[in-house]
Amino acid sequence: MRTPTQITKLAHEKACCDTTFDWENKQDFEFASRGLIHRPDDAAVYDALGNIVWHHEAFEEFLHGDAPLTVHPSLWRHALLNNFRGLFKVTDGIYQVRGESLANVTFVESDNGYIVIDPLTTAEVAEYALNLLFQHVGKKPIVAMIYSHTHSDHFGGVRGMISQEEVESGQVRVFASEGFVEWVLKEHGLAAEGTPSRNAYMYGENLPVSAVGLVDDGLGQAIEGGQVTYIAPTDVIGRDGATLSIDGIEIEFMYAPGEAPTGMHCYFPKFNTLHIADNCYMCMHNVYTIRGAFPRDALQWADSVARSLRFTETEYLVSGHNWPVFGRDEVKRFLGQQRDGIKFMHDQTLRLMNFGYVPAEIANQIEFPPSLARLWHLRGYYGTLKHNVRGIYVYYLGWYDGNPATLDELPPRILANKTLEYMGGVNAVVARAREDYEQGNYRWVVHILNQVLWAEPENSLARELASAAHTQLGYSAENATWRNAYLSAAIELTQGLPEIPKLHRVLRDVTRSMSVLHMLDALSIRLNASRAIDKTFVINWILTDSSELSHSELSNCVLNHRQGNAIEADATITLTRSVIGQMSLEPLTIDQFTALVEVIEGDVKAVTELLRLLDHFPHWFPVATHGRKFEERSYSDLK
Ligand SMILES: [Zn+2]
Known about the structure:
With 639 residues, the chain is α/β, with parallel strands linked by helices. Helix content is 37%, strand content 16%. An 8-stranded mixed sheet has the order 1-4-5-6-7-8-9-11, covered by helices on one side. Strands 12-13-14-15-16-17 form a 6-stranded mixed sheet, with helices on one face. The longest helix is centred in the middle third of the chain and has 26 residues, at 328-353. Zinc ion binds next to loops.
């Protein structure tokens, strides 16, 4: 464990007396604790095998009192607020379980049961939350499930609360907005393959839960472990919204893209309660998320928040994360401020962009005006102004800054070697970096040592010093996800990558719900092009469980898939959907594959070839260390 340097301590003391922060305002503590019915005192939540999926005790041990010198005081305040957890009554008929997952689940009492909004991330914690409700409020059936948007922390726990059979029998309706299924697949499908490492960095999943590790994730304390499940919606709410009565409860659904590309707000007139999805919560949003995702449409987002002001009778504003806002005037003020926070970032980025500023300039230039900077609910615990404005730039203009000097940059390893050669070599640079470290220039130190580590990945002096600088940046970060990323880098630099994640999440249920063509597309991105040169084949697929026919064709090192069987195929395989899913998840030999399928007709060699050409992605890839990657080319011929 590294201790904070004198420079980090001074920064901490400065933040403590920074008048930007409204330290005297304690309203959030009252809102976060209001209506508590039960706070569980068990040590943890477990899965069926006895593994911990949610750890109460770990956070309880250290989250109290004043901020330690290893945590930014503003982030510490926010972490204390996220530690108000358990079952809460928002108002008569509206309950939430908060702080037992990264997200909140909201229960609305209907005539004969409950309407659930957002069943958390995994089935294990969802079941735990439902039991809290049943034990302390009353056991009644779930009559409807509402997914507020497409992120897995808002649907992944669904099978912990309802079953597929209940949905198929019509006992439970599942509501989502138009485009929900498409975007779940986009966001949790192909690109998600590479995100475990980046996710772990952002959410601190491999950090110890402690004052020198994970203290908070901004949206909540952490992401839970367990089974991420999925049940497809039965009722789709279109872009015009809808007003429906479900089991005696009127709901006004409002289509509301923002934090997710499709989503909706739900207003319950009977309870004067508005659920605003993840479009507002008690910290700055992520217009861009550092785990990696396409940037969100900030203008549309601000508009979704602005349109919610039409629910003028709202007394209780609840959302997918953090705590509610209570009071008609408070809600109105809050929504206006949240709208302005997003629109400010958008408008000022576009203004500077149109003067020709490039992303790094914009990121270091834009600051909130004092009236927004002072608001706790717009502080950057999740998003930051710095990374959001870069996301807005990319949303409009893409990655290229318009300067041809950056159009065809050399790859990082060759760039680093050449730069260090100009600077007098690795040893000279590390020595200078040490001086900068002593002076507290940590941002520069991690930048220049990143160059050194591209050139010499195993340089232990550089690794140690870079790790130290990342640690100090983590201790000083107000943003939870930046802190997590810095501290994760510090660990990777000295200890390497972990074998397995601390809290394992399984995503197979989402894969199972994909269409066959989506599942086959997941094979296409595994095709190793260099091994496929000059190879061609056509394979027909006959799916026995869904009566679907499709075919895959290899040409020009590309696997294309279409519906229907091809007239001339090298092989025809009769199998179930799950085998295609399995092909995407693990390498299979032809013998293993043959044992799983029903029949292979035609040329078995084509099938063997397909299996041989598929790569399988590592569970983790390195982020901060730069050892040679799988099949990295030598670059010796690049100029
Ligand atoms: Zn969320």
